[in-house]
Amino acid sequence: MTKTITFNELRRIKDALPDGSTVRIADKLNTTPQTVRNYFGGSNYESGKNCGLHIEPGPDGGIVVLDDTTIYDMAVEILQEQERKNEK
Q1: How far is CA 38 from the centre of its chain?
Q2: Which residues, including other chains, have CB under 8 Å from residue 74's CB and lie 6 or more apart?
Q3: What gap in Å lies between CA 70 and CA 65, rounded to an integer?
Q4: What is the arrangement of strands in the sheet containing 63-66, beginning at the earlier edge strand?
Q5: What is residue 18's DSSP assignment?
Q6: Backbone phi and psi for residue 35, each to the nearest 5 degrees, phi listed first
Q7: Closest C-alpha among 58, 7, 11 to residue 37
Q8: How far lies 78's CA from each of 17, 54, 71, 87, 88, in Å?
């Protein structure tokens, strides 16, 4: 399933993740933390892979099309967990 968001929105999600989230996501998906970082706009392909992230120029940092939302969905889930913990 694809998802289209702005680049700045994608970065806001990444920046809001608690410490260790990149490694947590990578471990669950049996991939490298750098691959997860690349998903959020990183560009180190020597130690990480491309994750189907397509950026088009435009407002708010450009438009990002995510070919696979698995990492995005996991990040949102982590943020929701954090929000629930903060409410208690």
Answers
A1: 8
A2: 25, 28, 29
A3: 13
A4: 3-6, 63-66, 53-56
A5: P
A6: -65, -40
A7: 11
A8: 7, 23, 11, 14, 16
Question: Locate tokens 């410490």: which residue?
Answer: 19
Query: In 10 A of CB 75, how many CB atoms?
Result: 23
| Whole-angstrom distance, CA of residue 34 vs CA of residue 38 | 6
pLDDT tens, position by position, 7-41 = 999 999 999 999 999 999 999 999 999 989 888 88
CA–CA distances in Å: residue 33 to residues 28, 30, 61, 62, 83: 11, 9, 23, 24, 23
